[in-house]
Amino acid sequence: MEFLQLLPNPALTLIIVLGTLIGIWSFQAIRIVLGSRGLTEALGEFVAMIGQGRLEAAYASLTPAYKGRVPFKEFKRVLQRTGLRQYLRSRPGKPDLQGDRVVLPVTLSLRNGQSQDLTVTFLREGKGWKIDDFDVAVFDR
After folding, report:
1. What is the CATH number of the domain that holds 126?
2. Where are the transmembrane segments (predicted)?
């Protein structure tokens, strides 16, 4: 049996395949956009508080689980060591949605000319997001 006999209209088959792929891609894009709404605002508020020296407020904005794992003194040491207090602007990457949990890679530009890669984990709380963890890697650009 020839391949063309299996596909009576190759143009129609191609349209169906392309339509399916575009539909899947669109669904994924919409899921990411709707699922991650508010993440950049939560991140922006957090790093702005740190940049303004409002460390207690930044610490208070974290999830109770994070505060249970990391005491305030250690949080301050992490900020001191990484230089996050010199935050200038951020560039978020593609979020990885995992139910009510989202992992977001972020590149921060600092006033001293350095950049920092952050991996920020958010948890959904009500209609908003709270930072549950962040991992900092320092590098020069």
Report:
1. 3.10.450.630
2. 12-34
